[in-house]
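Ticket closed. Logging final result for Repressor protein CI.
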Amino acid sequence: MSTKKKPLTQEQLEDARRLKAIYEKKKMNLAYPRNLSQTRW
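Final structure:
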């Protein structure tokens, strides 16, 4: 299945950066010890 990728528009790139920032923030929050009680090791 090879589909040609269209280049993203400037708006799409900005959206992607925004979403990635939110994702990274959430990921960081999950990694902190204050959430250890909710995380199963």
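Helices lie at 10-31. No further action required.
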